[in-house]
Design goal:
279 residues; mainly alpha; MetI-like fold; 14 helices
């Protein structure tokens, strides 16, 4: 098996498939970026051509800055994404630690109940969620989105983190207890640093759906002051006329934060995925 794995032909084929998949995945991003710097006529005439002296135009970015409150939309998206990820990682890690460390009646049932959240889409309960937000007065507030995204991300976070926390040495935790450390200190100082790759994996898996979501911002927070970047970009899409320069420019600026955060956490993400595969 090792000989087959290290066969040069197999390695070339494997890397060829990965490179092809990478090119396919990056192709839409490439098209959006290059067309955001082109005039409207050039976008439809040569959509795959790079901008040149004749087709180069910044009209899309100028329109976004003038007509849409881009910085407010960007700020709202950042607040919602960062707050949701913080709650997902904190509460998900604490729930995963409790399920993996302590044996109590209903432990297995609780784990299966949380796993149902992975299989059942949260959008099925949109009507009930909207009624709940109206009753609590959270409609057109960022808290409505933060709470929904936290509930959406917790099942996957608990499922992934609990598997990693079971690998943490019991001797290390027992040594901490002998030294007089509280359970909270053991959790925050001993356990969490050892599962950082898994937490980075959870963060990346949840960050992209939250950042790109249009469904819940449109339903729960459609007011101008609470619009996210994805929802704010829709102002340039009309029923009869669409300002494609502005749409592509807004999407280009929305893509950059995700790419930057992915580059920052890519090493931790790969470590988390490969650790799970080896396990």
């Amino acid at each position: 098996m090792n000989k087959a794995r290290h066969n040069p032909l197999n390695m070339v084929a494997m890397h060829g498939v990965l490179i092809l998949y990478t090119l396919i995945a990056l192709f839409p991003v490439f098209v959006i970026l290059i067309n955001s710097f082109k005039s409207r006529r050039a976008i439809f005439r040569e959509p795959l051509a790079l901008p040149n002296a004749d087709s180069f135009s910044m009209i899309g970015y100028e329109t976004v800055m003038k007509q849409g409150d881009f910085f407010l939309y960007f700020q709202n998206s950042m607040i919602v994404t960062v707050a949701s990820l913080s709650f997902i990682l904190l509460f998900g890690a604490m729930a995963a630690y409790a399920l993996s460390e302590y044996q109590f009646k209903g432990n297995l049932i609780m784990g299966l109940y949380l796993a149902l959240g992975i299989m059942i889409p949260i959008r099925i309960g949109t009507v009930a969620i909207l009624e709940m937000m109206v009753a609590t007065g959270l409609v057109n507030s960022l808290w409505a989105l933060i709470l929904v995204y936290t509930a959406q991300g917790l099942p996957l976070a608990v499922f992934i983190l609990s598997e990693f926390m079971r690998q943490v040495s019991d001797d290390l935790k027992n040594a901490g207890r002998i030294d007089g450390l509280s359970e909270y200190t053991i959790f925050f100082r001993l356990v969490l640093p050892l599962v950082r790759p898994a937490m980075a994996t959870v963060a990346v898996f949840n960050m992209i759906p939250i950042w790109n979501d249009l469904w819940f911002p449109l339903i729960l927070a459609p007011a101008e002051e609470t619009k996210t970047l994805t929802l704010g970009s829709q102002v340039f899409i009309g029923q009869f006329v669409t300002d494609w320069n502005a749409v592509l420019s807004a999407l280009s600026m929305a893509i950059l934060p995700v790419l930057v955060l992915y580059v920052i956490f890519s090493r931790q993400l790969i470590r988390g995925i490969t650790s799970g595969a080896v396990k």
